[in-house]
Amino acid sequence: xxxxxxxxxxxxxxxxxxxxxxxxxxxxxxxxxxxxxxxxxxxxxxxxxxxxxxxxxxxxxxxxxxxxxxxxxxxxxxxxxxxxxxxxxxxxxxxxxxxxxxxxxxxxxxxxxxxxxxxxxxxxxxxxxxxxxxxxxxxxxxxxxxxxxxxxxxxxxxxxxxxxxxxxxxxxxxxxxxxxxxxxxxxxxxxxxxxxxxxxxxxxxxxxxxxxxxxxxxxxx
Length: 221
Fold this sequence. Notes:
Layout: E1 5-8, H1 15-29, E2 33-38, H2 48-63, E3 68-72, H3 79-89, E4 94-99, H4 112-120, E5 125-130, H5 133-139, E6 146-153, E7 156-160, E8 167-175, E9 184-190, E10 193-200, E11 203-204, H6 207-210
Parallel strand pairs: 1-2, 1-4, 2-3, 4-5
Antiparallel strand pairs: 6-7, 6-8, 7-11, 8-9, 9-10, 10-11
Helix pairs in contact: 1-2, 3-4
């Protein structure tokens, strides 16, 4: 019987790792790979942080030759029901799930999703991938990401939180825990790639070296 892999991801630091794991399995078995994410909100209600996660997953999916990246928006049914439905539609034989802290997949640890999936799709092998200690620790270094912008002035690229016509980039700012100033990491998309730059006292350092064409790029409002 031909194998088909389905990786299920949800918002958090583990998504790309799960896709890589699924990619390795699919590569070894020389079989199709699918990625699925489920969100109870409509697509037009997603916040900037969720949008960035999805863009990162799409890049990882392309790198691992994913057959199809499936997004189920505005989904009110239980996650397990949606997973089993997609698994049946795509003739999935192996399922990769992540156990991430403080997420909808948290109920995996209680067995509820697993029990439903075992009943709904007994023909599928289920792989549970836990978050490494490194990812948990890294996640604790920064506060929750907030929408922010980079504004060009005489001193360079300055972080701001109000949208203006002078903004060059829109993205997410992750402030370092325990600092009174705007120090942290700013992430944004450019040419379908996720760019990460460091912010120190409101300003991005070495921006031009990282993004040579920064002065020619303008976001659309």
